[in-house]
Amino acid sequence: MYIKSYSQEIISNNPSIWIGYFSEIKLNSKFLLLSDFQARHIQQGIDLKEGRTGLAFKLNKKTYLINGIAYFNQQSFDKDAKIYNNNNELRLWQEIKSGFGFNNSFLTNRFRIEERFFSNSTSAFFRLRHKIEYVTNVNTKIKLLTSNELLWQFNNETNAWDQNRTSIGIELSIANNLNAQFILMSWWQFSSNTMQPTVRVNLMHIYN
Questions:
Q1: CA distance 191 to 164
Q2: Best CA proximity match to 93, nearest among 110, 80, 105
Q3: What is the DSSP letter of 44?
Q4: pTM score of the predicted model
Q5: CATH number of the domain at 14-207, out of 3.40.50.150, 2.40.160.40, 3.40.30.10, 3.40.50.720?
Q6: What's the gap between Cα 121 and its chain centre?
Q7: Mean predicted lDDT score pLDDT of the chain
């Protein structure tokens, strides 16, 4: 169900819920293996599952170059036909991430390119993503998180702004090298002119 705002955008009153597990494995002084697995409840009748992994190369103390692959499965329920439809996506991605710290804070810039191949389409899609994240250490156990990510998608037929994701949250240290994140995200989808409130819960695991 949706409600109209005064500026005519559509605001969903059915929050999306994303649950994720993120891992970072240090292979040596130069390489990391980054992986995540997520289950996303988009709205009633639409669910998505994904697995993603990438090999990160430490260019210097502040910058990483990452190359990876991901698989997505979106399942939607057709009320008229009373069947579930599946759309699978194979995604290749390349990324450069850099950041710097000051006082008790850390600022990160991330630029990512994605090549997206869908099972229900013969066209490949390309997407550019830029995310800026600001993290403040409250103490040794608690971090405050704020971020904004803008996404642009294009292929040989169309190009347009895809999404904007603005987030605030908290990260708690719950065990050695294991953190939990609780995030509220404003998920703006340009194609449908829809803003969907989203709750994200993540486990962050670092293997040294």
A1: 11
A2: 110
A3: T
A4: 0.90
A5: 2.40.160.40
A6: 23
A7: 92
